[in-house]
UniProtKB/TrEMBL annotation:
GO MF annotations, alphabetized: kinase activity
Protein name: YegS/Rv2252/BmrU family lipid kinase
Coiled coil (residue ranges): none
SMART domains in alphabetical order: DAGKc
Transmembrane segments: none
InterPro entries per record: ATP-NAD_kinase_N, Diacylglycerol/lipid_kinase, Diacylglycerol_kinase_cat_dom, Methylgl_synth, NAD/diacylglycerol_kinase_sf, YegS/DAGK_C
Domain DAGKc: 1-129
Species per Swiss-Prot/TrEMBL record: Anabaena azotica FACHB-119
Annotated NCBIfam families: PRK00861.1, YegS/Rv2252/BmrU family lipid kinase
Sorted UniProt keywords: Kinase, Transferase
């Protein structure tokens, strides 16, 4: 008998063709899985569909959509033993990238069929579940500015445009950060607490390389004193994250703990996994190994060589030499 799974599909996510996407998913998965397919609507979201699937006692839930759909489905399986399959079709694909899951339909489906699962941490921010990160200040404002219409038209550029617009109005705030063993007070423009984060979430990248199964959260403080400083700090984080080395500027700080309490003056907007949910203060706690996801059996490795496309390229393979 085939394994079974509930597929939750958002037909409006991303910029692709939803009918073609769904047909491709079915063509790959249905020979090996009995799929029960539910599409999200404006009224019935992935959160409700996933909760109902959990209540029906499904063997697995597969979510396909943008980061909003994936996070909502993930929340329903926190603390259960039901594995989550991720087929990312959004704009930013932060969820899949942060957890090392491929973001093409073909590879994402193969990952699910291979059946390898891994338990990752999640966190709670003021009792709201968080899989990736909570942004306080700058990034939370940016999320709010990148609306659906802009995302449809400009894709990932919408976030960058929103960020540039936000930079023009950069405002710092006083922040108090409390961990189980210390209280830190400083001035910041952005505070980000990450459980898991893709490299593109630059403001989360203070320590570089956010580990999603260590039972800990990484907090990054970005505290530039001018707009030029903000651009330089952001660029530095982008570079250090790409090189997988920790940030080294004085206006960037980072620390690791299993919980944080963040208070700001004045209150700042707070976005959890890309959705603005309210304002500070927030209390964020890590819940170790609470989410079971299908992951590639061999972790994706970054290519160490790229030569394709170089002009007049010739590659000659040499005979192996005896040492
Ligand atoms: N059938 C539908 N019609 C209109 N809106 C829908 C429908 N199904 C889901 N939605 C809305 O889609 C949103 C979630 O979108 P999702 O995050 O999956 O994609 P996205 O916004 O394109 O991706 P990303 O967040 O990566 O940019 C929710 O706000 C939900 O209300």
């Amino acid at each position: 008998m085939n394994r079974s799974a509930c597929l939750i599909f958002n037909p409006v996510a991303g910029q692709g063709n939803p009918e073609a996407d769904l047909a491709e998913i079915r063509a790959i998965l249905e020979p090996e899985l009995d799929l029960d397919i539910y599409q999200t609507t404006e009224e019935v979201g992935a959160d409700q569909l996933a909760r109902e699937a959990v209540e029906r006692g499904v063997e697995a839930i597969i979510a396909s959509g943008g980061d909003g759909t994936l996070s909502a489905a993930a929340v329903a399986v926190i603390g259960t033993d039901i594995p989550l399959g991720v087929i990312s079709r959004g704009t930013a694909n932060a969820f899949a990238t942060a957890l090392g899951i491929p973001d093409t339909i073909e590879s994402a489906c193969q990952t699910i069929l291979q059946g390898v699962t891994h338990n990752v941490d999640v966190a709670y921010c003021n009792d709201l579940p968080m899989i990736l990160l909570t942004a306080v200040g700058f990034e939370a404002e940016t999320v709010e500015r990148a609306d659906r219409e802009a995302k449809k038209r400009f894709g990932i550029l919408a976030y960058i445009l929103a960020g540039v617009q936000e930079l023009r109005e950069l405002e710092s705030f006083d922040v108090e950060i409390e961990t189980p063993d210390k209280i830190i007070k400083t001035t910041a423009a952005a505070v980000t607490v990450a459980n898991a984060a893709p490299a593109t979430s630059v403001l989360a990248q203070g320590p570089a390389g956010i580990v999603y199964d260590d039972g800990l959260l990484d907090l990054t403080i970005v505290a530039p004193n001018s707009k030029a400083g903000a651009i330089a700090a952001t660029y530095h984080l982008f570079q250090t994250a790409s090189a997988k080395s920790a940030a080294e500027r004085d206006d960037i700080g980072y620390l690791r703990a299993n919980q944080f309490k963040i208070t700001t003056d004045p209150p700042q907007k707070v976005a959890i996994d890309g959705e603005v949910v309210g304002t500070t203060p927030v209390e964020i706690k890590c819940l170790p190994s609470a989410l079971k996801v299908f992951v590639p059996s061999v972790p994706e490795v970054e290519p160490v060589e790229k030569l394709d496309g170089l002009p007049n390229l010739v590659i000659e393979l040499k005979e192996p030499t005896e040492e």
